[in-house]
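Hi Y.,

Following your request, here is the sequence exactly as I used it, all 390 residues.
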Amino acid sequence: MKLITNDIYYVGVNDRQKRLFENLWPLPQGVSYNSYLITDEKNVLIDTVDICYSELFFKKIDDVLKGGKIDYLIVDHMEPDHSGCIRLLREKYPDMRIVGNKQTFAMLAGYHQITEGLHEVKEGDTLNTGAHTFTFYMAPMVHWPEVMFTYDRADRVLFSADAFGTFGTLDGGVTDKELNTGRYWDEMVRYYSNIIGKYGLPVQKTIQKLSGLDIQIICSTHGPVWTEQKTKAIGLYDRLSRYEGVNGVTIVYGSMYGHIEQMAETIASSLSEAGIREIALHDAGTTHASYILRDIFNYKGVIIGSPTYSAQIFPAIDSLLGQLTLRDVKNRLFGYFGSFTWAGTAVKRLAAFGEEMKWETVGEPVEQKQNISTEKQCIALGKAMAERLQ
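Below is the corresponding structure, written out as tokens. Let me know if you'd prefer a different format.
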């Protein structure tokens, strides 16, 4: 356990064993499950951890309470990596009141069959535990419907559920003052784009709702506790939820025999020669989609290339287009290219995708037949994107 303020303790855990978050997204640097214990006249726990780490979690709580009890459990988010220990907590502290909203309690009954000892809160309701007064703000679809934020007026701390979270374990320290946070920012973008990316409008509504609060510390359920760098974390979420990309280009391609890859390399070279320095180049067949989604959320320009495959689009590119459609990524500048041997389909499919997403098409699409050179057209496409960005 770690002390964050005079009486707010970090009692979360690190998971260095899991390889895929939600059994989908790679975790090369692991992930933390954050929980917070506030000691007061009435002791309060905010969220729990994955049940796999219950033994360590309970030891940390015992180290703080030294035989005391938990009076309230505030449930800001019911996803199992944060609610996994609720049933065990109720068994250990049978008089503990569980604080949540109506949506929380429907899920609580479904996951844990708990229907008693509940304290329901609504928007703006407060809970006083002695020195601390907690105010509750509903944040539906950031990124589940029951999500709420808890604000502690005494220490000006926002407990933000998954918002402002990031992949990556907490190695030694807990707050941004104690950690080298450089490695977390790309992982925050990857976390946002993959987990929360579909819900830009709800995130914007929540940020606006909280804009009048004096927030000195942000305690998310994943990643560092934000103190000195809280403004940067909020700003990053604000930009991403407005689908505002920075001036750079993500080039994604699928290639069977190298022709599309060479086209992608030529376009990247053209962008560089035109002054674009932020270029992410991904082979969709070998790069996990989570990293591609991260860069597409981060950069304003997107150029996608695919060969025709069985009269359709290359499968890895088709899957990526589905992921982008699911997240309804907005406001991108779009270029595309493709190849075929006897019947071209890929370029037509990419054109339809761009129209569906309402992205602005930049430059002329390039379609290569067999190995007939399209170098000049690829250079022109890169140049057109660079000029549009600049």
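The mean pLDDT is 96.

Thanks again,
Q.
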